[in-house]
């Protein structure tokens, strides 16, 4: 149905993201609150230092179309990142979906949040029905060959990481609930703290010194605190000189 004579590259004749969006009237359900907040924290702290910001694409619950032979098949990762691709589709539009034969770059890392109903498929513990599309694990491992696959169980706070080695995933050792990914000079770990008013264990990215990457709000608070301390030091220096500082109403 999708072959041409003479053959042409898939990007020229297969459906694009305009034909294959993420919105599906048959699946109107929204993710739960954790599935909203946790991907947001991952997005805010994902900043590989060896890639410019405009060459990084991050998505949450976005349809990922992966098979040129079955263009309507897709997976919907909880969170995934692509590096070395334009932040905007063809450098001009926000994406409706991610269509690999149009983009030319596969995801670099996928994160799935385990739940009782999806755990076995997410961990590659289900057998594929030949009449159905492949499972997530098979797509990530065999079709897209995603270099890093991360799964997180928020009910047990267990973090598991898999790296593609040869033709299959090998589980990595997670030390102190952290895993380092050298290709992007970032690590992913479990952080206990307050995010969006919720105190719990959260997944977030850290740098090569082991420091957690700050969110925009944290960076702003840090700058305010640094400015406050600078003002206090200046005031102390002035008082030592016998001058009472006056910084105005601010």
Commentary on this structure:
The protein is an alpha+beta fold and 250 residues long. 23% of the residues lie in helices and 24% in strands. The protein is built from six helices and twelve strands. The strands form three sheets. The protein has a six-stranded mixed sheet with strand order 1-4-6-7-8-9. Strands 3-2-5 form a three-stranded mixed sheet. Strands 10-11-12 form a three-stranded antiparallel sheet. A hairpin with a 2-residue loop joins β8 (158-165) and β9. The longest helix is centred in the last third of the chain and has 25 residues, at 216-240. It is elongated and about 85 Å long. The mean pLDDT is 89.
- Report low-confidence residues grouped into runs of 5 or more: none
Question: How much helicity do the residues have?
Answer: 10-25%
Structural Rg: 23 Å
Please give the number of β-strands: 12
Number of helices: 6
Shape descriptor? elongated
The end-to-end distance, rounded to whole angstroms, is: 69 Å
Largest sheet: 6 strands, mixed
Q: Spatial order of the strands in the main sheet?
A: 1-4-6-7-8-9
